[in-house]
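Sample A.
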Amino acid sequence: MPLYTREQLPELLARAAKAPSQVYLLFGERYLCKNAAAQLEQALLEANGGTVHALDGDREDGATTLAKLRGYSLLPGRQVYRVTDTRLFHSRQVAKNIWERAVKAHKSGKTEQAARALCAFFESGGLQPSPDNNLEALTEGEWQQCFGFAKPSDDLSWTKPLAGMDAGKSLAASAADPGEALAGALHSGLPAANVLILLTEEVDKRKKLFKQLKEEQAILDLSVESGSSAKAQKVQKSVLQDLVRQTLAEQGKTLAPGLVDLLFDRVGFHPVAVVMELRKVMAYLGDRSQITRDDLDLLVGRTRQEALFELTAAIAAGNLQQALAIGDRLQENGLHPLAVVATLRHFIRNLLLYRALQEQPEIGFQASMPPAVFQSRCLPRLKERADWKKELSAHPFALYMQFKTAASFSLSTLTGWLRLLLQAELRLKGSPIAADTILQHLILSLFSPPPMHE
């Protein structure tokens, strides 16, 4: 069987309706996986009916699920067992990605999502999720051995209470390896009416079960390249455009010309948020068929974290027009100007550190060097800087890009920017001038040449 891509989903659904596989693995972006699974279930049950049995991978007992797959149900039609967040394909190779998801959910205050990701993170390193397995107490060597990447320097105390939320309910508690057990069951044969659908965000493609499913069953790759490169943004926009068309078609609504890009600009690449925001607006429309700019302005706010990141990116790129536009939108959506100043301060302080380090000959950084040379020559020397361990703990390529950005500014420019931020903060706290005027003045000042005399 081929490994299907997002564009080949219709082909997969057509084949599922006529000659279904017994196991389907859907991996990648979470909402896209859930949406595709719903379509797949409809295709599997359309002809002869049946039942969908929804299982939570966080609490699933692999042996019980396998027993159901091997058995014959008294219920009529096809029996579809859908396991969401399966951990059959986790390993230390994907541990860092899972960790980043856990940290992101924790910072966003999404406790359940953070606990779920943290539980998967434990298992990716071969540990049982439990408060007794204290991540904070692991040495750097133990962390590296378990998870395959350097131990973060941040405060990890938040992980201990979350580690106990699902203790004892995971696949790791099973004595036998559930992946090997499933592989063996497939070789032995399963009842034709039983189908297993596995959903996960991360997979280790080197696992034997993954290779077996790719050769004998069906796999749908719904991963979407992250980042802000032109290639990544093109793919992300294509994904969101498909979701917008599907969502509008649900109620026969349309978007006024030019609003698709505005919607994406406000929400960012968050597929589930795009769908939910559109459904919210459609519910508000009532009998009206077209969504207008006024509707979006009233009901759809901009994702603040995305906008703050784009503001710093615009400043780094020297794009004054874009920086002013983003600053205005942040104000429109109620973000306090002091939060903008705090973000800019953190951004500029990091640039100042990276630029200052470049002044030291032993680091050996040159803006023209390729990433591989930076990683082999500069990174080991930077890691020796214990005082800046936290600031230098980013991914090597991300650190390389930040050093390149810092190289385009002088030390005097960056220190001048910090003075401008301090002036703006003092004005915001004690001046009668409107906050949006102060913020606009700050952004304009960042793009203005420094005065000849202080």
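Sample B.
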Amino acid sequence: MSQTEPPIRAVIAPVTPLQQNCTIVWCAKTLKAAIIDPGGEVPRLMQVLKDQGLTLEKIWITHGHMDHAGGAAELKRLTGAPIEGPHPDDQFWIDQIQMTGERYGIPEAQSFVTDRWLDDGDVVTLGETQFEVIHCPGHTPGHVIFFHREARFAQVGDVLFQGSIGRTDFPRGNHQDLLDSITQKLWPLGADIRFVPGHGPMSSFGAERRSNPYVSDLAIEAMSIEGPDFQSPKNTSPG
């Protein structure tokens, strides 16, 4: 592998009727892969692994919502790959996965037992490369993101979207925590970071700092001037 080739590669596979962005990422040198947020459609994900010639090494979970984690148990049963994540504060969401799946017409969704809880500052390995773990509460209390510093790439789950942010009207969601997670933990990583959100198209941190109506620099400045009663725009994000 030449020095100009990226250390990792990725394929985005939207799954379930909620079109959640499941990301298959792999070490370019070893072809060892991780599936981030296998919300469902496990046979299709297994086929992608086969088509790309990959060996599944890890299953990574950003947070415990059904559309992000409903297929983790089945994927582990089929492959033996360990499940890493999310943060333990999302256990109560993991416990509800089967019930939520039945409500959304996805009866195959199952709860799971993680092999490793993750916390802020942890590192997860994949082949000969590694990702940093950043705890970003707000959408859920135990939400984490996966960041590859060398590749300038992040999978952020439902923290941030192109033009929007994650919902915080779920149990134990917190709007201010989410804003703090984005502006204090994501923005310092760099404007050039390209990210895969939980739903919808990719974007970059720089683009969202310029134009996102919730967390652009201008929006944050307006909130600080107006104070706590400032009304931010209505959140229409799917996550």
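B remarks: The helical segments are 42-52, 66-69, 72-79, 91-94, 97-103, 175-186, 205-211, 217-226. The chain has one domain: 8-226.
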